[in-house]
Design brief:
The chain is α+β, with helices and mostly antiparallel strands. A hairpin with a 2-residue loop joins strand 6 and strand 7.
Length: about 300
């Protein structure tokens, strides 16, 4: 939906096809009894960078009237104790045993010296990034084991791009945070924005803008086939009201899982492409919503 809005702003003709009966996909708000809940946590983090400010200014009108701008409340639970995230080095060292604190400091110092003496040309895995930026001990305690469980893979097999979500703990940031000053805006941020009536507000308002530009959004319209012609996807076949309809296309932007997308393309792609697509794995996610008879459970939004 974000791409459709942006393309509409640039003057392109756009048709959005949505399998479900509501806008938002996996980022929408749903009703569970008298409660409105999102598909998992969805917030817009406000970073102190020029790029973030431009995006914030562009999409701010879509958050509805009086959106919530809240202070980030995230905690890491480590050996029975909770620590502020992004991690505060002094708080971690004061909370663990002296022996563990010494290991954290030694490994972190060694990793920092190594980075200064031999800067990496490229970090290929999540593990390489974590050990170089956090030190082996702190990385294993807070991120290594956790990430392996979440993704079901050793972190040596997870791309370093996934580690970009983890706040760096380099020496500069440690000193700045200890002095109460702003640290690296790319990894440290304290504010986030959220629509008062759920994340669907953002996408519903984008959809309204797309329609205002004369473009089309089709709900309850699953794609059944993509036809290619001379090396491009020329037609999209969609199921509407039990009948197949054909939509001519100059280009296709898809959020379908790649294995499913490859299977839908006709004529079929070369066998090696299909084989590679079939080998792609995914990690399923189960969301559990629990209603409690109390006004608030915690001030944290993520533990």
């Amino acid at each position: 939906m974000s791409a459709a809005w942006r393309l509409s702003e640039l003057g392109y003709r756009v048709t959005v096809l949505e399998k479900e009966g509501a806008i938002g996909g996996m980022g929408k708000t749903i009703r569970l009894g008298k409660y409105a809940v999102d598909y998992g946590p969805h917030t817009f983090h406000i970073r102190e960078t020029d790029e973030s400010r431009k995006i914030h200014e562009a999409i701010r009108p879509f958050f509805g009237t009086d959106p919530l701008v809240l202070t980030r409340g995230t905690r890491v639970r480590l050996r029975g104790k909770e620590y502020v995230y992004p991690l505060e080095m002094l708080q971690v060292l004061a909370g663990v045993s002296p022996l563990l604190a010494a290991r954290i400091v030694f490994d972190y110092a060694a990793a920092t010296v190594k980075s200064l003496v031999a800067p990496p040309t490229k970090e290929h895995s999540f593990e390489e990034w974590g050990v170089r930026n956090l030190g082996r001990t702190l990385y294993d305690l807070c991120f290594g084991l956790y990430s392996a469980r979440v993704w079901g893979l050793p972190t040596s097999q997870i791309s370093s791009k996934q580690a970009q979500r983890v706040a760096k703990l380099n020496l500069k940031n440690v000193v700045l945070r200890a002095l109460g000053l702003k640290a690296d805006p790319l990894t440290y941020f304290t504010k986030y924005m959220y629509p008062r009536k759920g994340i669907s507000v953002l996408y519903e308002n984008m959809a309204a803008e797309v329609r205002k530009k004369g473009n089309c959004l089709l709900l309850d319209s699953p794609v059944v086939r993509l036809e290619r012609d001379e090396g491009r996807l020329a037609r999209v076949i969609v199921l509407r009201g039990g009948r197949e309809e054909t939509i001519e296309s100059d280009g296709v932007l898809s959020t379908l899982p790649l294995p499913a997308l490859v299977d839908m393309i006709s004529p079929a792609l070369p066998p090696e492409v299909a084989q590679h697509a079939a080998r792609l794995r995914y990690r399923s996610l189960k969301l559990i919503y629990i209603a409690l008879k109390r006004p608030r459970l915690t001030d944290y939004h993520w533990v």
